[in-house]
Amino acid sequence: MSENSSIHHESTVVAEDTPRQSGLDGYFKISQRGSTVRQEVVAGLTTFLAMVYSVIVVPSMLGAAGFNQGAVFIATCLVAAFGSLLMGLWANLPMAIGCAISLTAFTAFSLVLGQGISIPVALGAVFLMGVVFTAITVTGVRQWILTNLPFGIAHGTGIGIGLFLLLIAANGVGLVVQNPHEGLPVALGEFTSLPVIMSIVGLAAIFGLEKRRVPGGILLVIVAISIFGLIFDPNVTYQGLFAMPSFGAEGESLLGTMDIMGALNPIVIPSVLALVMTAIFDATGTIRAVAGQANLLDKDGQIIDGGKALTSDSVSSIFAGFVGGAPAAVYIESAAGTAAGGKTGLTATVVGGLFLLLLFLSPISYLVPAYATAPALMYVGLLMMSNVSKLDMADSVDALSGLMCAVFIVLTGNIVTGIMLGFGSLVIGRVISGEAKRLNAGTVIIAIVLVAFYAGGWAI
C-alpha cells in the first residue's frame, strides 16, 4: 500500500519525474522485486555506512607493509566504486564490492612483510589472482561449485557468516574481547564503556524500529549514534568536509605499478593460488548467503543472475591489482543493505556512487564511529542466523554438517575453514550412515580439494 501511495503522490506532485522513475524501475526491476526507489537508496546508504570503515582499515594494513597510504586510500575507493557499480548496473544485485579485509591482511603481512616480496610484485600477484579467479568464474567452475553446494552447507554458510559478523562487530567495539586469562579465548569486554553501551542500545533500537516497520530504521540508528558521538565523544571529531584525493608524493602513485612477470616467479605462484582458493570459497559463500537473505534465489535455490554476480567480484580483483589495492570481494556488510530492504542493483549502484564521492569527501569517513555501524552489523548477523529454521533435521547428516560449517566459521574466524569441515563431515557422514548414493561426484571432488588444500598447508 505504501509503495502505491508514494508512487501516486510523486506522480501527482512532480509529473515530470515519472518517466525517469519508470526508467529506473524498468532497468533495475524495482517494482518487480517488491521494492521502491526510496527503499533502494536507503539500502545503498546503509551498506555504504556499514563498509566505509574499509577506507581506513585497508590503507592502514597495507601502510604497515610500506604501501603509500594516500595512494591506497584512492585505490580502495576506486575498487569499491568499480566493483559495486559493476554489480549494480550489470548484475542488478544489491551486493557491494570492496577490498577484502582478509585478503588485504594476507597481501600485507604474508606476501610483503612475511615473504619479503616487493610491493609491485605483490600487486602483480593480486592482478594475476584476479585473472585466474575470473577464468575460473567465466568457465563456469564457480557456478559448478555453487550448484554442488549441499543444502545444509549452503544454509550453514549463511548461519556461520551471521555469527562471524556478530563476533566481528562485537569485538570491534569491545563488547567481546580476547580473554587475557586461562580458559576460553573470548570474554566480555568493558560493559560500561561508551562504545559498548551505544552498540547495545543501538541494536535494541533497531529491533524496535524494524518491528514497527519504520522505513530506513537501520540507517536512522547509524546517523543518530554518529551525531551523538560527534557531540559527546572526544574521539569523534569533525575534520572538514572536502579534501582533494592524494596519490602520495611524486613517484608514489600505485596506478599501473604492478609487476606481473615478477609475480610469475615460482616462489610467488603458491601465494597467488592460495589467494584464488580462498577467494573462490570465501566470496562465493558470502554471495550465496547475502542473496539468500535478500530472497534473491530462484526455485532451484540458485542466485538470480548468479553468473554475473560471480564475474563482477572476480573482475574487480583484476582492477584492484591495476590501481594498487588489495583483492576484491563482495562485502558481508552488504547484508545490512538487504536487511534495510535492498533487492536490486540500484542499492549497489548507490554504494558505488558514494565511494566515488568519498574520493573528495574523505574527512566524512571519520564521522562514523565503529559503535554507530556495529548495531547494524550485529542485527544483520542475528537475522542471518535465522537460516537455522531452513535446515532439514530429518536429514540429520546434511543438517548437522551445515551446523558444523556454521560453528567453525566463527570459531576459526575463517569462512573457508568452516566450508571445508562441513564438506568433509558430510561426505564421511553419508558414507558411514550408508547414504553414499546420496552424494554426487561434485560434492566429493570439492571435499577432497578443500581437505587437500588445508592438509598441504596452503590455506590462508
Automatic annotation (TrEMBL):
Biased composition (Basic and acidic residues): 1-11
Pfam families linked to this entry: Xan_ur_permease
InterPro entries: Azg-like, NCS2
Membrane-related topology note: Multi-pass membrane protein
Listed transmembrane segments: 41-65, 71-90, 95-113, 119-141, 153-177, 183-207, 214-232, 267-290, 310-332, 344-361, 368-388, 400-427, 439-459
Listed name of the protein: Putative xanthine/uracil permease
Matches recorded under PANTHER family: GUANINE_HYPOXANTHINE PERMEASE GHXQ, XANTHINE/URACIL PERMEASE C887.17-RELATED
Localization, UniProt: Membrane
Keyword terms: Membrane, Transmembrane, Transmembrane helix, Transport
Main subcellular localisation: membrane
GO molecular function: guanine transmembrane transporter activity
Region: Disordered, residue numbers: 1-20
